[in-house]
Write a structure and sequence with these properties.
Blueprint lengths: L1 E10 L5 E10 L4 E5 L6 H9 L4 E10 L2 E2 L5 H6 L2 E4 L6 E5 H11 L9 H14 L10 E2 L5 H15 L3 E5 L7 H14 L5 E5 L3 H6 L4 E6 L2 E6 L2 H9 L2 H7 L2 H21 L1
Parallel strand pairs: 3-10, 3-11, 6-9, 9-10
Antiparallel strand pairs: 1-2, 1-4, 4-5, 7-8, 11-12
The chain binds adenosine-5'-diphosphate (ADP) and magnesium ion (MG).
Length: 272
């Protein structure tokens, strides 16, 4: 279970507050989604949970199965069962995917234990077959020259191999074709169960049609301002974010919303 309580985060270098009291509980076996306009703090939330530099937590806590994540080093968080998938996976020239996976599994084993290589390979190969991922990729540098769909397969292969207790997908579906999207969703669905929770951060309904969340939250200005079922996804698709800005924003936001509206009206007028 992931439990975030009253999380406040600012940039380390600047007095800019980005998260302004986030409360979120995702129980074991649950998949939640966060949507929200650009710049509302969604990625910051995933970065702070993963332990990326540059952010200062000024208040609040985030625990995974009762362990305080915010006091751990990034690799300790991964060892505690946290997994992050990003929109643009890093390319690691010179490190074969098979070696990378083995090291990642090793890093999460208790001291003194080692990977049973033949069992590891057997499982990885079976997962690659399940993903229709050519086994030759095991010997290739991770993500180096991989197509978008191959990167997604590599990412889901990591998910299936590492079996984290909790995974965050930060816009990992953006820019994907429908096949790659289905791979991501199928990976989430295969993991879904009492020992796994997930948070899907997305702008699009598509992935949530395949990996259906139990709850959907809307983040706006560093807070989760609305929580509900998948009807929220349909509302956002139909109405955009204006009603969120109007309902939860300041007068300045209304001006911003109006500018966006008149901007798009202008664009429509000029493009016919
Ligand atoms: P979202 O993922 O919802 O689009 P982000 O978390 O990426 O939002 O960003 C929230 C706000 O914080 C934005 O205004 C962004 O410019 C700012 N921000 C986030 N990280 C940094 C950073 N490292 N340096 C400067 N500004 C940042
Ligand atoms: Mg983002």
């Amino acid at each position: 279970m992931l439990e975030i309580k009253n999380l406040h985060v600012k940039l380390e270098e600047e007095d800019k507050v980005i998260l302004n009291g986030v409360d979120l509980t995702i129980g074991a076996g649950e998949v939640h989604a966060i949507m929200g306009p650009n710049g509302s703090g969604k990625s910051t939330l995933s970065y702070v949970l993963a332990g990326r530099d540059g952010y200062e937590v000024t208040e609040g806590s985030a625990t995974l199965d009762g362990q305080e994540l915010l006091e751990m080093e990034p690799e300790e968080r991964a060892a505690a069962g946290l997994f992050l998938a990003f929109q643009y996976p890093v390319e690691i020239p010179g490190l074969g995917m098979g070696k990378f996976l083995k090291r990642a599994v090793e890093a999460r084993l208790p001291e003194g234990e080692s990977v049973n290589v033949s069992a590891f390979l057997k499982e990885v190969r079976a997962d690659m077959d399940w993903l229709s991922f050519d086994r030759a990729f095991l010997g290739r540098s991770l993500n180096d020259g991989f197509s978008g769909g191959e990167k997604k397969r590599a990412e889901i292969l990591q998910l299936l191999t590492l079996k984290p207790g909790f995974a965050i997908f930060d816009e990992t579906d953006s820019g994907l074709d429908i096949d790659a999207l289905k791979i991501v969703a199928a990976g989430i669905e295969r993991m879904r169960g009492p020992g796994f929770g997930a948070l899907i951060i997305t702008h699009y309904r598509r992935i949530l049609d395949y990996a259906v969340p139990s709850l959907v939250h809307v983040m706006y200005k560093g807070r989760l301002v609305l929580t509900g079922g998948t009807e929220i996804v349909r509302d956002l698709e139909a109405k955009g974010y204006d009603w969120i800005r109007e309902g939860y924003g300041s007068p300045e936001d209304e001006i911003e919303a109006e500018e966006i509206r008149s901007g798009s009206a202008l664009a429509e007028a000029t493009h016919g």
